[in-house]
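Good morning,

Both structures are done.
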Amino acid sequence: MKVEVLFEDNYLVIVNKPNNVLVHNSYYARNIKDATLLHLLKEQLNIVLYPIHRLDRKTSGVLVLAKQKEHVAQFQELFNSNTIKKSYLAIVRGFVEEKLEITTPVKNPDTKVYKDAATSCKPIETIELDIAVHPYKFSRYSLVELIPKTGRMHQLRIHMNKISRPIVGDYKYGDRFHNRMFENEFACKNIFLHANSIQFKHPVLETTISVNATLPDDWNKIIELFNWKN
């Protein structure tokens, strides 16, 4: 598997992570034996890289990695200080008709303590299909932009579920009937959550870095089928 490199300089590599690829081995994914993103990039670029932030295994899109371990903390401070702009795209069940601010606390999986979390959800497109999905005779979906204001684990997936607009293809927090419909009707099994763009001021070079990640194939298939133009 070749990983798409979106940006590279003497300090950073920014890639378009594919669906269903772990960034690195972890306790939570100890049963997954497939090659990690770090392993794939080491084979591809012949360099050891250090992830600066997280991206779920099933989520695709922009991921920033450092070339030197000593620079990781410097770049992580961009995330900790909320000076970095991240945008995600998602396809969710139901109609989202206005901009929403979701502030439901999210539980830390290690400490089991709830922490404050905030997500902005902006509607882009909607569609109603004449395809029955339990318990209705039709199905509705929205394309949305999600902007996390905090960085809790699974935050976007949890927040969309909390407002009854779960992300299609999310088998942990989503709706199994809609997930199954996308599998059966469109042969799409991956989660429709994509880290679309990132923008930040390079802490070493002091230049503005702005990167967009191209969409996976199943996204392009659905966008064409649904005739979404935006």
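Second structure follows.
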Amino acid sequence: MLVPAIGGGHPGDHGGREVVLGVDTRAPSDDVIDFAFRQAARQGAVLRAVHGWTPPPVYGYAGWVPSQVEADQFRTIEAELLREALAARREKYPDVVLIEDCRPGTGASALVESSADAALVVVGRRRRPHGAGMRIGPVAHAVLHHAEAPVAVVPHD
């Protein structure tokens, strides 16, 4: 857990009533999602599940220009993946108000933007059994450095 010093205030002065959860819809982690739901339930906070996605590149004579139909299809697919990743926890935590926030852009930028009004930001990091390589991934790294709220990094397989 990292609690940034914000504007000379006290560490507990992080205004929002939302717990922000970063969700990797391609490999959602039960440990990370459960942690965020537990924190939201414990704090009586709204849980904002954030998923940033980047459309696949479509190359044409003018560079990358997806049609509106394709953009809408990608948006629908990504929103459904987020909904599926959270479905089991909705039943387990019926009292937690959940906002599904699926937006184009990187996961890191979506989480950093959402941190401005958050009480806590929750991100995951994969365990590295061999001990080599980075200890955290690029999303967790960016959130730790740029979030305006406390950040909890939850290890998972």
